[in-house]
Every structure is written in structure tokens, then in C-alpha cells.
Amino acid sequence: MADNNISSRIMVFALFPRVEYMNTTKTSLDDFICAIATMPRRQIEREINRFDGRFKLDFTSNYLKTQSLDKLRHILLAAAVQQKFGNHC
């Protein structure tokens, strides 16, 4: 389990800030979703704050602290998917 968590973290760090690693295959998207699902809250908040895409994520630290972990995961996943596929949906 620990190895999976480490590889998930490495993959997510490789994805941000530009999300260039993720391609359109179902496996890659599934891997990406699993990586976010295993990330601890602090890491998700850090990735949201570091997001450097075509659009800005402008959430305050206080706002992020008041959101559920599931909502933070959703924000991060939605931003990454929009960054990668936004013009193709």
C-alpha cells in the first residue's frame, strides 16, 4: 500500500502544474483519479494552491479548510480535467 501511495504522489506531482502527463486513455484517467483519492488533505490543498493552468484557482486558505475532503478532491480533479480536456468536451 505504501508503494502505491508514493507512486500516486509522484504521478500527481508530475501532473501539476500543467497536467501534461495525463492523456485520454481510460487507464490514465483512472490512475489519476486513484492518485487524487489517496492524497492526504494537505497535499490536495497544496496542489490546488499551486495549480497553474489556463485559468486561476483563487481559493483562500480559510475556504479550503472549511471544505470537505471530497469537495477538495472534486475541485482538484475538475481543474485538472478542464485543463486537459476543456476545449474538447
Can you walk through the features of this model?
The protein is mainly α and 89 residues long. The chain has one domain (2-85). Helix content is 67%, strand content 0%. The chain has five helices and no strands. The protein has helices at residues 2-15, 26-38, 41-50, 61-66, 69-85. It is globular, with a radius of gyration of 13 Å. The model is unreliable at 1-13 and 16-24 (pLDDT under 50).
Short description:
With 89 residues, this protein is mainly α. It has helices spanning 2-15, 26-38, 41-50, 61-66, 69-85. The protein has five helices and no strands.
The largest sheet, given as strand count, sense and whether it forms a barrel, is:
none
Low-confidence stretches: 1-13, 16-24
Structural class: mainly alpha
Task: Give the SSE order as H and E letters.
Answer: HHHHH
Strand content is under 5%
Q: Give the overall shape, derived from the CA principal axes.
A: globular
Helix content: 55-70%
How confident is the prediction overall: mean pLDDT?
A: 76
Count of distinct strands: 0
Count of DSSP helices? 5
First-last Cα distance:
34 Å
Radius of gyration: 13 Å
Throw out a few tags for this protein.
89 residues; mainly alpha; disordered N terminus
Topology, pairings included?
Elements: H1 2-15, H2 26-38, H3 41-50, H4 61-66, H5 69-85
Helix pairs in contact: 1-2, 3-5
